[in-house]
Design brief:
With about 210 residues, this protein is mostly beta strands. It is about 15% helix and about 40% strand. It is elongated. The protein starts with a strand and ends with a strand.
Length: about 210
């Protein structure tokens, strides 16, 4: 099985990396922890080993999700409480003066666009190198387009603000993690001065 990451603002073809898929046919076990939170365990096909543990409050992913290998050894933890969904305006502390959609050809009106260090090719390289497609997402054939909103401030510092449209908490979390760790961008210049801007970065997780 192969996976790829695609960013619509880039003209280059998606870069792919090899992923070996598992053959497990997991079972699901749900436990109510209290009136609002439930625990969902994914077990191997024999129902003996827990492969992952998730927590939900209603439909919202909460808490620390855990992933285990076939021997039950913990291999990954993901703090789902960092995820925020919605428009950036839903979070007043992160609303800058200018909003940027990298696919909008009218951006020339802004002046100098914000840019990842080294340009689009280096952005592809950063994402391809640093994204770790969650093992469970591969096993369960979870894929799709995650729309990440971030802010590039006057100094070029990137801060992930929200997931405007997600696919599944596993992919949403990975998109958040890898974008929030990006190095400083070249800031947007408007009327000769650096200004903070919102940037929408769609990332496609695809298995094939």
């Amino acid at each position: 099985m192969r996976w790829s990451i695609w960013i619509p603002l880039l003209a280059a073809l998606p870069i792919t990396a090899q992923v070996t898929t598992g053959t497990t046919d997991p079972r699901i076990r749900t436990t109510a922890l209290n009136d609002s939170v439930r625990q969902v365990d994914r077990l191997d096909k024999k129902g003996r080993t827990v492969l992952s543990t998730h927590y939900y409050q209603g439909d919202r992913a909460v808490g620390v999700w855990k992933e285990y290998d076939k021997k039950g050894v913990l291999v990954a933890e993901r703090d789902m409480d960092i995820l925020r969904y919605g428009e950036p305006e839903d979070f007043p502390e992160s609303v800058p003066a200018v909003s940027i959609d990298p696919t909008d050809t009218s951006l020339a009106l802004v002046g100098v666009m914000p840019e990842f260090p080294g340009g689009e090719a280096e952005l592809i390289n950063y994402l391809t190198t640093n994204i770790r497609y969650p093992r469970e997402a591969v096993d369960r054939d979870i894929q799709g387009l995650v729309h990440v909103y971030g802010v590039v401030d006057q100094t070029g510092d990137w801060r992930t603000v929200s997931i405007m449209r997600g696919v599944h908490p596993l992919l949403d979390h990975e998109a958040w993690r890898v974008t929030d760790g990006m190095p400083d961008w070249r800031p947007c210049i408007q009327q000769g001065k650096p200004v903070p801007v919102k940037v929408k970065l769609p990332i496609l997780f695809r298995l094939r």
